[in-house]
Write a structure and sequence with these properties.
Strand content: 35-45%
Strand order of the largest sheet: 3-2-1-6-5-4
Largest sheet: 6 strands, mixed
Structural class: alpha+beta
Number of domains: 1
Helix content: 10-25%
Distance between the termini: 16 Å
Shape: globular
Oligomer: single chain
Number of helices: 2
């Protein structure tokens, strides 16, 4: 995996590498509204992920995921990590879980 100093640096590089769609959490799936796509945990793979801590508060963490669907659609999901993360199903939590 690569190393990035900032979230924006990671996102910009992932876009350059073909991860052009934006995914959002939708409780039991991730969605890309621009192409009307909904992916359940079994429909995608996480190729890479990068975690970033806030400058002023280490509890302010975000994770950027580089995701590829079974059909080859590549995109990015940015989510808060920990207490501020979006509400999601146990299956999706399991898929997106990263070790500290």
């Amino acid at each position: 995996m690569r190393s990035y100093e900032t979230l924006s640096e990671a996102v910009n590089d992932l876009i350059k590498r073909g991860y052009t769609h934006n995914f959002n959490i939708a409780c039991d799936a991730i969605e890309c509204s621009s192409i009307d796509l909904k992916l359940h945990p079994e429909d995608f793979e996480i190729n890479e992920f990068y975690r970033f801590e806030g400058d002023s508060n280490p509890d302010d963490e975000e994770v950027v995921y580089a995701i590829t669907s079974k059909d080859g659609i590549k995109g990015i999901l940015v989510n808060a990590y920990g207490a501020y993360s979006d509400e999601m199903s146990n299956e999706l939590i399991g898929k997106l879980k990263i070790d500290r």
